[in-house]
Structure formats: structure tokens, C-alpha cells
């Protein structure tokens, strides 16, 4: 990897406007914490400021306001309505991350969501001409108290006699130029306009709706909108650092020896403190995310990154590189302090397209001379490891051809794959479950993924095959016919790191290859899937896969035998920096071994002895088909017929979707939803 050919001309800084806080002082104490120098917010007994740096009237604190005859607002829980669009929200979050990582003040960073929805912006003229303008806060607090008090009085006078009236409440304010802008809901805004012409501290007030809305709201998409002058300058200088270290011809970002960069040293952003260095790198990655918006832009602009000579002994400080540029082809980690693969393990399963990895002049070359095979397993496209060819393009092509997805011999009665997504997942999942469960978790699971295992004894078994002991699974089994208390069920509903703990305790397995008739698979798309990251109202398009099959199990004492299983996966879109899909839910049901029946055609139904997805015969009436699904769902979930019917109706009588809904909602179901033993 060659170093950059030379610096590029610095780009002009984005222009932005500063929003002045109405009280002119920082909010409470600065943010801080044990990591990153971000101090916790303290309480202020004087004025409450919202995240935009403006006076927040949503909550009234005892003793917060002073002044003779001033009326306190009793509306302590004003509804915030509307949600900002995704781009505005992500841009605002980027601004806050930049200033937070730099230890700056985020109070002036705007949030578009605060000024959208059922709110009205009013512009008030007259404060500067009043006697209150000489107050320490410019008269803002007295003006707001006056407006709320007078508007509430007018509202009370115009209401029916004896009817209790909710006080008028101002949500936030901003002094800018000759105007004071205030935000209130539509009803309260109408009452506030009625007191236009009232005299406040010797000056006549002119109150009207703002034609342009909240100041700066239209600029929420601007990456610099609301940033202080110091933050804008810092962002501009960091962008120039990135541009100077980026070679557009070779698509190389040279982030080597950041501790010696004169600009970063001058700014004090890459000192000897590991926390400062880590935060600086995170800010640089945030700026890269802002510069390259889409995965396609990132792939086209960035192929190589050098992190050499940064005294790295772990990838933790620079882990965000994998999330920012997941399709990186060349990575240089030379001249650092990596001494074992454990220090690189967090990147395991990432950079799935990596072709070159340089670990030259790291202690790992001496301490773990046999690290090559494991690193090759981590990165399937790796060809060059520390300037040694470990694979040729031809070898990679052959390996890919061997791993190419072949049609699964036995499909179920409802096999509707999309672009081979289901088959690709299955073919990759089970070999990893047998050989490398940690890598499997890193590839398809995250902190939102859920896993359950259930031992089911009441199904037919083959007479000539001994039943393996159930002891390794019983403490984790979530069979609702056996586990009836809510607490025990929740305890057996594993998520995130808990899944890894459980998988390490499960026996070793060996699933048959997919060129045998050992599986029956159903899969189809699933609409409206809840997305834990973006939380879109419509949900995401996912997929549900139900498999019936067998595997060889080896227990801790060395004994082995066959066991049957049913496994249902709900797949959804991946998180940033990972593959295309993630496991939302993984439900494993274990049975005594009973071989699958032979299926002569792809549409033949699965016999009931292997706990299939119900597929009523064509001769049955719709009512009879629904009745069969109702009985089967009750059998599987232990819900009453009434609740099973509600579940199926909610899923529009799609059995697999009903199972997925049940899995998602069962922790919240009342006790009467289940058949009592």
C-alpha cells in the first residue's frame, strides 16, 4: 500500500449560522463521564434550557422563576408531537456526536423534531424597547411569564363560567435580533396572539405567526447548522486532515502515525491519552460517514486504509472503521503492538471483502507464528497476509464455486425464497453452528437478536434409536407446557451476549450436508417486521424460515446419537457494517429422533408426526383449514383456543407469521392466555 502522493487542496468550510441561547450561559455543568471527558449534566435552579440551548417551558421547577406577581406554568407534561424525518435526525445526531467527541457544548445543536408537528412559531416584537431589556437575561424570563399569565387570563375570561381551563404554556423560546421567537401548540398560540397590543414593561408587544417557522429549522439538513463557531472551525480542520491524507487516485486513506500529525497535535486531539486518541478517531469516522452517505459511495471512494504506527495494541479504539467501511479491500496495521489474535478478535467476521492485511513489525509475528490459518478463516477473500500470498484468485474462485448454493433437495409446501436469500443463509448457518458458533454470532446476530430452545417430549420417535439424555437442555428449555410462570419464561428468552453464553454450554452437533434428503424447509417473505434500529412505522421486509431435520449430537461424556429438530428463523435487514441480513428471532425445538418422510414432490405436505407447518389438503373447506391451524397453534404455543384465534386473525391466517407474532408478544401475554395444567 503506497502512501498518499500529496496533499489535496482544502475544501471550503460549510457555512452555518449560530443560534444564540436566550440565557447566554451554559446549561448546568458540562457533560462528562469516566470515559471521554464528558461530564454529567447538572441541575440548575434558575433557568431550564432545552437541547437546542433555548429556554424550555415544558417543565416548571420550584423556585425557578422569580418576580412579583409572576404566575408559574402548571403544565408540566406538554405533549411533544411529530417526529423529524430520518435525514434531519441523523444529521443532527452527527452534529452532536462531533461536538460531544470533541468535548464541546452540544446545547446549541438543533433538533428538528422539537419544532415539528402540532406546534406554531410566533414572532414577538417589543422586548428591546421595554424596561425589562436591561435585566441580566435581557428580559426573556419576565416576558415569558407575562405572556403565559396574560394569555391564560384571556383564555379563562372567554371560557364557560366555572369550567377549569388549562394554563397556556410556552414550550421554548429564542431571542434573535429584534424578535423573540416562541413555540407553542396551535391552541395556545391562538390565545397568545390575542394579547398582541398589550403593554409589557412600558413597551407595546406585537405578536404574530412567523412566516418562516422556527429560525434555522429549514437548515436542519445542513451539516453545520447550529454548530458554534469553534465547532465549525474544528470540523473544518479535521476535514482538511482527512483530505490531506486521502489519495483519490489509489483510493487510500492514510491514517498512519496520527499522533505525529502536526494539525492534530496543535489541536490537542491526539495526545498521549488513549481516550483522547480514541475519540479523535471516532470523530474522523463520523466525518467520513457524513462525506460518503451510501454503501455504494463508500465502496467507490475507499479501497485501502492504513493505520500503521499508531501504537495500537487492540482494535477497540479503531473498531468504528469496520462499521464505516465494511467493504474495505486493503488494510495496513503494520508497526503497531498487536501480540495475539485476541486483540484483533473484535474484527472477526467483519471486512468480508478484505484482500490484503499487513501485520508487519507487530509482536504477533513472533508470539503466534501460526496465526495465518485462523486469519484466513476470518477473511475468506484474503490473498495477501503481511506480503505473503496465502490464496490466489483462482483458489478463491474454486472455493466459492464449491460453496455455491445448490437447491435443497426437500422443500416444504410453502417454499418462496427471494434471490436465494433463504438458501444462502441456511447453507452458511448450519456448518458454522457445528464448527464456529462465535463467528456465527458475529455474522448474523446482534444485541437485539433473540434465541429460545424448547425440549418437546410428546412426539413420535423411532423405536430402534435410543433417546439421548435431555439434561444439557432442560435448564434452558422454554417449553410453555412445562414452564408456566412469566419470570421463568423471560429468563429463558435469551438476547445478545446471553446467547453466546448458552451456546457454549450446548452439546457439539454435526448437521448433515444439504445434498441429502435430511431436511424439509419452508420459507417466505414477511412484511411489517419491526426494525430495532430505524424504528420505521411501516416496518421492514423480512423472511421467515422453518426447518425440520436431524443432527448428530456429541455429549460431554463422548457418547453420541441422533436427534430431530425444528428450527424457525425470522430474518431482517442487517445493522450497519455487517452482511445483508441479521437474525431477529431463532426458535429451536428439539425432539427425540424420528426420520423425516420422503417427499416425492415440492408441493407435498409434511406429515404431522414431525410438527409441520399446517398445510390443509385442498379438499378441505376454508373453515376446516382454519380449524386445523387453530388446533396446531394451540398445540405448539399452549395458548387457549380463544387467544390462538386472535393471533391467527392478526396474522391474516398465515401460520408462520402467527408463530412469529406469538414469539414477539408472548412475554406480555396474561396468564389466562395459556392453558392451565
Automatic annotation (TrEMBL):
Q: Does the keyword Cytoplasm apply?
A: yes
Q: Which GO terms describe its molecular function?
A: RNA binding
Q: Which domain of life is it from?
A: Eukaryota
Q: Which keywords appear in this protein's UniProt record, sorted alphabetically? A: Cytoplasm, Leucine-rich repeat, mRNA transport, Nucleus, Repeat, Transport
Naming one, the record's GO cellular component terms include: nuclear RNA export factor complex
What protein name does the entry list?
Answer: mRNA export factor MEX67
The annotated region (Disordered) lies at 1-95
Q: Where is the composition biased (Low complexity)?
A: 60-71
Describe the task this protein carries out: Involved in the export of mRNA from the nucleus to the cytoplasm.
Compartments reported by the entry: Nucleus
Q: Which InterPro entries match?
A: Leu-rich_rpt (IPR001611), LRR_dom_sf (IPR032675), NTF2-like_dom_sf (IPR032710), NTF2_dom (IPR002075), Nuclear_transport_factor_2_euk (IPR018222), NXF1/2/3/5-like_LRR (IPR057125), NXF_fam (IPR030217), TAP_C_dom (IPR005637)
- Report the Gene3D superfamilies cross-referenced here: 3.10.450.50, DNA helicase RuvA subunit, C-terminal domain (1.10.8.10), Ribonuclease Inhibitor (3.80.10.10)
Chain ranges of the NTF2 domain: 421-590
Tell me which CDD domains the record gives.
UBA_TAP-C
Instruction: Output compositional bias ranges, type Polar residues.
Output: 11-23
Q: Which Pfam family, giving just one, matches this sequence?
A: NXF_NTF2
Lineage at the top is: Eukaryota, Fungi, Dikarya, Ascomycota, Pezizomycotina
The scientific name of the source species is Coniella lustricola
Start and end residues of each TAP-C domain: 624-677
What family does the entry list?
Answer: Belongs to the NXF family.
Mention one GO biological process in which this protein takes part, according to its record: poly(A)+ mRNA export from nucleus
